[in-house]
Amino acid sequence: MKTLKKMAAGALCVCLTFAVLGCSGGQKPGKEDGVNAWVFKSSGIIFGDLLYQGFKEVMDSKGEKSTYQAPAEPTVTAQVQILDELITQGVKSISISTNGDQGYDRIMQKAKDAGVPLFSADSALSPDLRVTHINPTSQTGIGTALIQAAVLINLRIPYPADKDLAKAVNAALASYNGPEMKFGVLSASVDTPVQNGWIVKMHEELQKDIYKGKVNPELDVKYGNDVLTESTTQANAFISENKVSVIISPTTIGMAAAGQALSAAPNSGIKLTGLGLPSEMQSFMPLSPNDDEFSKVCPYMMLWDVIDMGRVLAGAAYAATQGTFDGKPGSSFQLDAYSSYPARTYKAENDPDGKPGTVVIVGDPYVFYKDNMADWINVL
Ligand code: RAM
Questions:
Q1: pLDDT at 20 over 70
Q2: What is the average pLDDT score of the chain?
Q3: Is the CB of 309 under 6 A from ligand 1?
């Protein structure tokens, strides 16, 4: 994670001007021949724009063309339509964050028949359809860390100086005799593979003995479809129902919506953590070491370097189109030095279910809190 911090210091000039969404990276529709496509879940989500920023940077550096496409609605059908057009137009590779587990087989077969290699990042494509999937961190690492953060925030314990969430949670719960804590989850859509995977891991974490009788093993899950207005409605439902003490939102849209809704209802006492972008969360979080994090709606949250995730995705896609990476376990590709990151090598691994083709970037999610928020709000 040191490299992340160094990068934060060195990359303040990163330009966040991807305001035109659902667009293509400079090419006109019908002219995507030889282009490497990034297809996100839906338009209007800065996370997808930042990922494309890193993707394009690497493709540009290789002299490759790239395009960014996203449907207005986060549905499989809308993505399939985009994919169909891209394949017909003769793209070189397709990378996607999926809106569902099913419904891609026919279009992916069309891609295979056309010799277009497929990749996924963020929300995974089924292993039998893709060359590789880029995971920012392990799914377990994210699910576990989000529950740990919610427990500590519920107990008004700051992010630990030694960054050891597990140790702090074990110590805090050992002496906890208060009422059972209950957490809510404000997710994306009911079908989104990536969020659903993290929620499974959150539930698994809550099965551990340390939580028994102290934290309710059930999560109250609501879905805002990664649309700001719908996510705000769901955040307000948490406030009026008043059943949970902390909302965990594993989506940047849910985080921004809940941050706003909770700030407008200061008497609710509900706190927020999850996976958020510093630029979108700065009004709801502490920004300096002198701030009292518990006077803010979101004392600390997590994510990873989304721009670099896009670089790794492009590195995999480029290597595959060059014939030097096939996504099989042990197969690897090299990423040049970008920003303050050094040159690196990534290796494909097996999925937990034994299916080939995953690249994991780092072990744990990166925590944004009062000591580092100021470094990141202009970056991500
Ligand atoms: C949102 C999207 C994306 C997710 C991030 C954390 O931007 O839903 O898929 O991974 O949040």
A1: no
A2: 90
A3: no
